[in-house]
Each structure stands twice: as C-alpha cells, then as structure tokens.
C-alpha cells in the first residue's frame, strides 16, 4: 500500500468506546479527487470512522495519514489539521446564535486570520454558487433543513479544505429536501473534491462514488466500484444488507 | 389588602410605617445613600460577570493536567456558597482591614464589596457552568472541526449560547446581590439601609425603612423588564415566528 499522492490513508485503525469495539482494523486509501462512499448498517462504525479522521475521536491504534502527514503522530497540531478537512454532520450543527454569514465567516476569520472583508467575500461567493445568497442574514432556525445543510456544507467549504467528510448529511432531512443537498455534493464531486461520504442513500452512492466500501462490525468487509458492490456483491453480509435496503425501497 | 387595612392594629402600623411627612423628609437622605448601593452593585456585578465566568471555565477544563485547577475552583465555589454572606462580610471587612497590611486598602466599603463579589461569583459560576454544559457537545464538535481551538470554540460558540440561556437565573442572582448590598451597612458603611436606620432611631418611626424598600424595588423592576425584553428580542431574531 503506497501513500504516494494519496489524500487519505488509514492503516489498521482501531477504536473502541469503553468495552465496545467500533473499528477493528480499518484499511482505506483515498486518492486525490476520489469520492468514496461508506455504506453499512447503523452502528457499523461509519460515523466513528469519519470522526476519527479529523481527530474528533482519538484512535486506539493504527495510523491516519492526511495529504502525506501522519496526523496520529504525537505533537500534531489538531487545529491546523482540521482546517484542511471539512466535515458536515447529520444534524447540521450550525451555530444558532449566528446569522448564516457569521456561521460561514467565523472559522476563516478566527482560525485562518482572514480579514473580515475577505472572509465575507469568500462567503458571498459560495452562497451565491449554492443559491443561498438571499439567506445570508437569516438565522439557522429560520431555514429549512435542506437550506441548513447546504449552509453547513458552505461553512465547511469556506475553509477551502482539501478533503471533505460527509456524515449521513441527508438522514435528518425530509425526502423532498434530500435532492437539493445531494445536488450540491454532486457538484463538488464534479469539481474534483476528494470526499469520504457515509450515506444511506444507495442511489446517490451509486451515482457519485468512484468506490463503495461496505462496513460491517468495524471492518471494511467489501469494497469495489459501485457496479461491483450494487451489481454483484460477493460477501453474504453485503448481499443481506443490500437486500434489506431494496426491500425498504431505498435502492 | 382589606384584611390589613381593617386589622385592629392598622392605625398604629399606619402611623409607624407610613408617615407621609416623615417619608418626604427622609427620602432625599436615603436616596442619596442609595446611590452608594447602586455603585456597590454596579461595580460588583461587572467584576462578578467576568470572575465567575473565569471560575466556570476553570471547572470545565478537561484532562488530568487540569485536575488541580478544577479542584481549586470547586473548593472556592463550595466554600463561598457554604459560608453565610454576612460572615464573609464580617471576616473580610473587619479581619483584613485590621491586618493593616502595607499596600492593602483598609476601607470597609472596599472589603465589603470584595466579600459580595466572592460570595456571588461562587453562585454565578455555577449558573455559568450549568449554561455551558447545556450547550450540546455537537456544537463544540462543529466549532473544533472547523479548526477553531478550544478557547475560540468557547469564546465564540459555547459561551454566547450559554449566556443567552442563563440570563433569567443570572438576573435572579443579581437581584439578590442588589439587596445584599445592604449587608455592607454592618461594617459601618452608610448606605441606604444604614441611613434609614439612623433616621428610624432619630424619630422612632419605621417609615424610612419603607422608603428604602421602595428604592430597592424601584431599581429591580426596570432591570427585570429590561432582561425580559433582551431575551424576547433574541428569541425573535433567532426563531421563525410560530410558537409564542
């Protein structure tokens, strides 16, 4: 396994909470501009995996390398690392006491030290691009779920990350709002953004992913192109999982 | 009200507590002395807001490294919430001034105010802490994931939300503080309560106490309405109409 030019490398990553082993040896490589979707049942470790990558959760053992830098080594500046990795959460996690604009400009101003005017210009560009220009001065609670999630994506993009982690970003949305968020992500993929996406939207995963990984019991049980995974899954557990998804009408 | 006015002792009480002439006579003196109460609590409140937040943040520092700091902050909060305010005022007001340490103020007013700051900061730090802990951890996760450091996340994301939630209990403590400025009188400082005592002992009539009570209420009510307005304004701005 070579790290040369890889955006993200995970080597034998283990993570447990108290006695519960959540990740039991994850190996994964993302090339630059690659979009990888993580699928699997709830509790299979998808979210934990994403949270480990930007060190929101410390790992127990293994190695995580982001753009050639071992981020699990001692003495890594986590704040600097996180500035280069955008993460979007299932529950948006916008700051409710700040307007949309303030939500987006906070980190560029405080973490990157960008002057206010530059941060605003950057935010305005992004808002316009994603059709949110008129929501600039609204507060998050006044927006629909889809709009909130798009703002959350813009907030992450404002840091100009080289890698985006998306954690079930459409799971908290009404079905009719899912499309607007997915189209934003498709656009990012088309622009070449490297993304690691945990999702339950199988149709979307099939569309957007270069590669799909099926997580089961804390390991990547099977990985391949969307055609391979959704067309002809090899592992019985993968087949079972996809069968249940089909029965639920989600594929 | 009717019960009171029709009570057998009402004429006596009326005469002893509600003497119109005496009220007019003592009001200017007491109002002037009350300015000292206002000064004490304005200064104390400003210091408490900052100091209590500092204590609350210390108590919330994570990890084994900060264990001693957490313990000290906890001891402080326990101690000063546990000792009756009046004792703290006596101990500092008479004790520290009697030490005659070089460079340390010997003013009873100063140490009385310090005592109030120490006692109320202990209460208010707990209010802050409750507010900080009420902000969902996902907010900190979001802030940290954007590359903000712990302090920046606290400063820009956690504390602003915490403070908005604790405005009513904070006001509660400040009203308590305003009233307790009267305790500084025990050190011999002539503020509104002490002034009314002087007036009472000169006339053997309690009307000056009523006068003082009215002054305290007069300053509490506008403050309470102002806070209500602040909270309501904030809510209107953040939320889309609907439920009231």
Your description of this structure?
The complex is a heterodimer of chains A (251) and B (244). By secondary structure, chain A is an alpha/beta fold. Helix content of chain A is 37%, strand content 25%. In chain A, a hairpin with a 2-residue loop joins strand 4 and strand 5 (69-70). In chain A, helix 3 packs parallel to helix 5 (145-157). The model of chain A has no long low-confidence stretch (mean pLDDT 91). Helix content of chain B is 80%, strand content 0%. Chain B is built from 10 helices and no strands. Chain B has helices at residues 2-6, 10-17, 20-59, 67-82, 85-99, 108-134, 137-145, 150-180, 192-203, 207-238. The chains are: A alpha/beta (251), B mainly alpha (244). The interface between A and B is medium-sized, with 28 and 21 residues.
Flag low-confidence runs of chain B: none
Listing every helix as H and every strand as E from the N terminus to the C terminus, the arrangement of chain A reads EEEHEEHEHHHEHEHEEHH
Average pLDDT of chain A? 91
Overall spatial form of chain B: globular
Category from helices, strands and their pairing of chain B = mainly alpha
Shape estimate of chain A = globular
Distance between the termini of chain A: 33 Å
Give the oligomer, counting copies of the same chain as homo and different chains as hetero: heterodimer
Strand order of the largest sheet of chain A: 6-7-8-3-9-10
Largest sheet of chain A: 6 strands, mixed
* Share of residues in strands of chain A: 15-25%
Poorly predicted spans of chain A: none
Instruction: Specify the biggest β-sheet of chain B.
Output: none
Structural Rg of chain B? 22 Å
* Share of residues in helices of chain A: 25-40%
Order of helices and strands of chain B: HHHHHHHHHH
């Amino acid at each position: 396994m070579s790290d040369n030019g890889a955006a993200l490398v995970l080597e034998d990553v283990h993570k447990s909470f108290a006695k519960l082993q959540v990740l039991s040896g994850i190996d994964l490589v993302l090339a630059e501009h690659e979009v990888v979707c993580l699928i699997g049942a709830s509790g299979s470790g998808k979210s934990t995996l994403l949270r480990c990558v930007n060190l929101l959760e410390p790992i127990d053992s293994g190695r995580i390398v982001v753009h050639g830098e071992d981020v699990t080594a001692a003495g890594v500046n986590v704040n600097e690392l996180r500035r280069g990795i955008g993460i979007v959460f299932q529950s948006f996690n916008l700051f409710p006491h700040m307007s949309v604009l303030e939500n987006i400009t906070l980190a560029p101003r405080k973490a990157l030290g960008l002057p206010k005017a530059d941060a605003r210009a950057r935010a305005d560009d992004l808002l316009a691009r994603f059709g949110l220009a008129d929501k600039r001065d609204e507060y998050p609670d006044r927006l629909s779920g889809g709009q909130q999630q798009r703002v959350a994506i813009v907030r992450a993009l404002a840091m100009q990350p080289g890698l985006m982690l998306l954690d079930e970003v459409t799971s908290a949305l009404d079905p009719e709002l899912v499309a607007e968020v997915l189209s934003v992500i498709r656009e990012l993929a088309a622009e070449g953004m490297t993304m690691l996406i945990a999702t339950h939207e199988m149709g979307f995963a099939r569309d957007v992913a270069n590669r799909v990984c099926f997580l089961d019991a804390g390991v990547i049980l099977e990985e391949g192109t969307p055609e391979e995974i959704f067309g002809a899954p090899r592992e019985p557990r993968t087949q079972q999982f996809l069968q249940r998804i089909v029965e639920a009408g989600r594929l | 009200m009717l019960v009171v006015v029709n009570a057998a002792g009402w004429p006596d009480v009326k005469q002893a507590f509600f003497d119109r002439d005496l009220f007019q006579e003592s009001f200017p003196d007491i109002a002037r002395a009350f300015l000292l109460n206002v000064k004490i609590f304005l200064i104390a409140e400003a210091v408490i807001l900052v100091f209590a937040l500092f204590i609350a943040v210390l108590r919330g520092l994570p990890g084994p490294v900060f264990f001693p700091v957490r313990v000290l902050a906890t001891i402080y909060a326990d101690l000063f919430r546990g000792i009756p305010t009046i004792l703290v005022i006596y101990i500092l007001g008479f004790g520290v001034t009697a030490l005659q340490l070089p460079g340390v103020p010997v003013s009873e007013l100063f140490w009385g105010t310090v005592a109030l700051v120490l006692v109320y900061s202990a209460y208010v730090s707990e209010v802050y802490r409750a507010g900080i802990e009420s902000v969902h951890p996902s907010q900190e996760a979001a802030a940290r994931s954007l590359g903000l450091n712990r302090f920046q996340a606290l400063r820009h994301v956690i504390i602003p939300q915490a403070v908005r939630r604790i405005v009513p209990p904070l006001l509660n403590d400040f009203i308590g503080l305003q009233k307790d400025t009267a305790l500084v009188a025990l050190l011999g400082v002539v503020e509104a309560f002490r002034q009314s005592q002087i007036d009472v002992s000169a006339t053997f009539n309690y009307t000056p106490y009523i006068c003082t009570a009215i002054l305290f209420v007069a300053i509490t009510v506008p403050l309470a309405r102002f806070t209500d307005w602040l909270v309501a304004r904030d809510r209107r701005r953040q939320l889309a109409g609907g439920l009231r």
